[in-house]
Write a structure and sequence with these properties.
Number of helices: 7
CATH topology: Rossmann fold
Low-confidence stretches: none
Helix content: 40-55%
Oligomer: single chain
Number of strands: 5
Length: 172
Amino acid sequence: MILVLIGYMGSGKSSIGRKLVKKLDYKLIDLDDYIEDKEKATVKEIFETKGEIYFRKKEEAYLLELLKLEEDVILSLGGGTPCFGNNMQHILEAKSAKSIYLKASIGKLADKLIEKKAKRPLIAHIETKEELTEFIGKHLFERTHYYSKAEHIVVTDDKTKKEVAKEIIELL
């Protein structure tokens, strides 16, 4: 089975994915890391040298490649992945995949991301928590349509990573 973790940046896709790997003995694949390995460049470098359209085409191709795996995998997607091309449809149609939207509130995301914004190119330029909250709200408004198509929605607010991982395991 392929467990596909979907959600906004900071929702816990990577950290909860690591918890699930330990509990389920699955392999963890981060799509962005996979793309960087295949393309021999960072996501940032790909955007800068080849542009977003090139990146999004590669992202879709590598997603399709990973959705065909016949092993137990936790697949952590980039926050924008489900929102481009036919990516969400590919995930929903993949016969061995289960999609889970890690849903966090705007406030919780802003609290978490304000401390790590320097490491996140999309938000590094944002000065204040109020601006960040507004930015996240706008993005979530655009993306929730895609995220909500996931087979399961797990609210992460006020839960530990361990509690979220346990809830996901119970869904399986």
